[in-house]
Design a protein that fits this description.
single chain; 312 residues; alpha+beta; N-terminal domain of MutM-like DNA repair proteins; Helicase, Ruva Protein, domain 3; 8 helices; elongated; disordered C terminus; binds zinc ion; zinc ion binding; NEIL2 protein; FPG_N; DNA damage
């Protein structure tokens, strides 16, 4: 799944056409009448988490004023190509993605052989972007205090970190790397974290996501990652790989049992104390994991396609 840093890069790529008019359109979306964009000028672009917003308006000199906002969400397989369409490839990874969505959802032509092609995304027309800048992990306005409080719920941290309402832009890579950096077990309940540990995790999320933007994509130079898709952690321990989480937040997760043990951290808030009472506070890490809570089972799923774990 594209994560915030990747979508931000795509926003920069798409931004090269700002100020240009849409000549014609293509794509198989049924959600938006793309023809209405023809002749309109691409005047603004915003990226928030995994969403991209594009604004199209009439020329200021025109007699009538039209303003259209499109919202793209790239989902699990979405991608953006500039001045090129996807072509068949022998790579298993490509085949997996090709099967998911062989046709571009949206194509916006700005000139001969100058276009943006959106694949595998959902697109819709909206009034205007609704953005809470305090939830975007890539922005300086990201609210660390609020996010720290959000984390201290009776849910596994691997689940909470993927909640875009508070951690917009965080995907599976950021999640796994931040958890390793904070030495936290993915199934640790947020309610058992001390405020200091929760803050450490929130800061690790922001640090990794911003470093990703600064250094480029971590997909190919995997050497820069500590735990994601690794067989051994940086200290040489065997990495465990399993599907963890629940419902829409179930993802293949990587962790080191030695570096990231389940911690019986004493909670300090009233809410967390209630949680501790329910779990008796004496359980070993194994018990906590096994009996955890029927609401948050370890979900075991088969991979749907070759290479899908790279984008889970
Ligand atoms: Zn380790």
């Amino acid at each position: 799944m594209p994560e915030g840093p990747t979508v931000k890069k795509w926003g920069t790529m798409a931004g090269q056409f700002l100020g240009r008019s849409v000549v014609t359109t293509g794509g198989n979306t049924k959600k938006v009448d793309l023809q209405m964009l023809q002749g309109l000028c691409f005047t603004d672009i915003q990226v928030h988490g995994k969403q991209m917003f594009m604004k199209f308006t009439t020329d200021p000199s025109a007699q009538t004023s039209i303003q259209v906002w499109l919202r793209y969400h790239f989902g699990m397989w979405g991608t953006l190509r500039v001045n090129e369409l996807k072509s068949l490839s022998n790579s298993a990874l490509y085949r997996a993605r090709y099967i998911q969505d062989p046709k571009p959802r949206v194509v916006l032509y700005f000139g001969d052989e100058e276009f943006l092609a959106f694949y595998g995304c959902s697109v819709q027309q909206i009034e205007a972007p609704l953005i809470d800048e305090e939830t975007d992990v890539l922005l300086d306005s990201f609210n660390v205090e609020k996010s720290t409080s959000f984390l201290r719920q009776e849910k596994p941290v691997c689940h909470l970190l993927l909640d875009q309402r508070q951690f917009a832009g965080v995907g599976n890579i950021v999640k796994n790397e931040a958890l390793y950096s904070s030495r936290l077990h993915p199934m640790q309940l947020g309610s058992t974290l001390s405020s200091e540990k929760a803050l450490e995790l929130v800061e690790a999320v922001g640090d990794f996501a911003k470093k990703w933007v600064k250094d480029g994509t971590p997909y190919s130079p995997m050497r820069d990652l500590s735990i994601y898709c690794k067989k051994a952690c940086p200290l040489g321990h065997k990495v465990v790989r399993d599907m963890l989480g629940h419902e829409e937040f179930a993802r293949i997760t990587y962790w080191c049992a030695w570096c990231q043990p389940m911690q019986p951290t004493a909670p300090s808030t009233e809410f967390a104390e209630e949680v501790q009472a329910e779990t008796s506070g004496e359980k070993s890490s194994d018990t906590l994991l096994a009996e955890g809570s029927p609401k948050w089972p370890i979900v075991m799923l088969k991979e749907t396609s070759p290479g899908s774990h790279l984008y889970a």
